TrEMBL record:
This is ABC transporter ATP-binding protein. Keywords: ATP-binding, Nucleotide-binding, Transport. Residues 1-22 are annotated as: Disordered. It comes from Roseomonas acroporae. PROSITE patterns: ABC_TRANSPORTER_2. The lineage of its organism: Bacteria, Pseudomonadati, Pseudomonadota, Alphaproteobacteria, Acetobacterales. One of its GO terms (cellular component) is plasma membrane. Residues 10-21 have a biased composition (Low complexity). Residues 29-278 form the ABC transporter domain. The keyword Phosphoprotein does not apply. Gene3D superfamilies: P-loop containing nucleotide triphosphate hydrolases. SUPFAM superfamilies: P-loop containing nucleoside triphosphate hydrolases. The keyword Transport applies. GO terms for molecular function: ATP binding; ATP hydrolysis activity. PANTHER family: ABC TRANSPORTER ATP-BINDING PROTEIN, CONSERVED COMPONENT OF ABC TRANSPORTER FOR NATURAL AMINO ACIDS-RELATED.
Amino acid sequence: MAAAEPTLDPPTEAAPDLAPAPAQPEPILDVAGVSLRFGGVRALTDVSFAVRQGEIFSIIGPNGAGKTSMLNCISGRYRPTEGRIRFDGRDITRLRTSRRAAIGIGRTFQNLALFGHMSVLDNIVVGRHHLLRHGFLSGMLYWWGGAQREEIEHRHAVEEIIDFLEIQHVRKEMAGTLSYGLRKRVELARAVALRPKLILLDEPMAGMNLEEKEDMARFIVDLNVEWGMTVLMIEHDMGVVMDISHRVMVLDFGRRLAEGAPEAVLADPHVRRAYLGEVDEEAPALEAAGA
């Protein structure tokens, strides 16, 4: 599905209550001088930023700005051509995707990546495979209850997520038969099943109607406030970004254009010109004056 065009919808009237952003916490994610090239094409150029523990940090920018490429570098799908990525104090620049998931990085995708032939319940269970502890020894001791206790523990965790995301009514349905909005919710559930410290959300509101967007925004804020997850989100809907983000970074042609509080970033004339195509009204006057 094509990425949504940016919108300037006003914030919803009943915006979710945000957790207060910590004053000066240590960054849980530190991206330093990351560049990414595909042959002669530069997807990212010398991008640096940090995501603080316990905040909702959004990356915005026009289509093709490099937003998903940055998430792919963080999650391990792409390896940066240059630069360094640190997570929770550890250099993960060359770490495999599976290892990044194991140490606490979860993600959703712009294009749904569910197992359509599996039930909602089974899709969520798959998200917990990195947390399984049983191996050869526990298999031998199965009859002493170790494996059964682990199975009960994981099933309880999955049911908690199902209740939290309000998908009890479809828990036994095949994921491929659900509406688009529900499938996006199931994919979020699968990412949450890992209980990540940092969750990467690639356009979680794309293709949703207003009611579905409000529900998803509420779930994201509750994950941040109640479950203590740090959120790094790509989103085109500026109403959502303004409502739930503590800080925002703007990418344009693979370069960082601005970073800061949502209101300040979106008021920046350079951001509005690059992201929304607005004309700088002062430019003709400056040119006429020889500036």
